[in-house]
Amino acid sequence: MKKQDAISHFGSKAAVARAAGISKQAVSQWGDFVPPAIAEAFAEISGGELVYDPGVYPPSYRRPGGRLWAPTSSIENAA
Fold first, then answer.
1. Contacts by 44-49 with C-beta closer than 8 Å and gap 24+?
2. From residue 14, how far is each of 23, 42, 60 by CA, in Å?
């Protein structure tokens, strides 16, 4: 999921940060893509309006063995 798609959906970086339960500064540090675990949660809480497709993530988001990086905690439904 592209960061800009999430910003467009939620309306602002601040709204994206609130939905993810993180700071605006953390959102600003993302590259072009929403981190995979957050993107997966956004797809769920948006009712499918946002789409999480692991296949579009560049190699820099992958661990050795091909799995995508994921944070140690999950996001609550903050939207």
1. 44/77, 45/19, 45/77, 45/78, 45/79, 46/9, 46/79, 49/9
2. 8, 15, 26
Local structure of 17: helix, strand or coil: helix
Structure confidence by residue, pLDDT tens digits, 22-35: 999 999 999 999 99
| CA angle (27 as vertex; 3, 67 as ends), nearest 5 | 65
CB 75 within 8 A of CB 20: yes
The pTM of the full predicted model, rounded to 2 decimals, is: 0.77
